[in-house]
């Protein structure tokens, strides 16, 4: 049997801690190895717990999540961090990602999304709950799913994320610029680009640009 992925929880509400523990317990891949109710306690205990993933509230007494992330970034801890917050604020998302967080969950979504978030982050991906994904996409692109001049949708189905990435490629964003814009890694951007090339049967980014223009995904 494969070794379970160790999860550490930090939130100043015991009831939320217990709720997350109950959900995580339903999945055989994960186990909760400890929890803290404030930031100081978290710093003192999380490394000793040898956690693989830390799920951490951003608002905690004694030391808040931002301060904790800054301290963890200095000590270069081996575990991955998912931030948990009551706020669906893109500025906050950008700040915590810059400080090394790999995921962001709103407290409204945590019950439905915690297992998916843990799985994605453990597998090396970034994770944002549906609420934040929608806000990220809407923040800079309002026209990704508009119909073209003939009133038809693009002939090949693309996901919301693929539509955004093909549009940014067509607008000459570099892989690094796209990663910063969408809060994802450059490796994830490159994976999406390769998938788009294969799905649309084109050989280069120029082909992606032609597709975007032809299907009215960008407007000059």
TrEMBL record:
Domain of life assignment: Bacteria
Domain Response regulatory per the UniProt entry, residue ranges: 6-122
InterPro entries: CheY-like_superfamily, NreC/VraR/RcsB-like_REC, Sig_transdc_resp-reg_C-effctor, Sig_transdc_resp-reg_receiver, Tscrpt_reg_LuxR_C, WalR-like
UniProt cross-references to CDD domains, sorted A to Z: LuxR_C_like (cd06170), REC_NarL-like (cd17535)
4-aspartylphosphate carried by residues: 57
Record keywords, A-Z: DNA-binding, Phosphoprotein
SMART domains per UniProt: HTH_LUXR, REC
Chain coiled-coil ranges: none
Domain HTH luxR-type: 151-216
Protein name, entry field: Response regulator
Organism of origin: Flavobacterium myungsuense
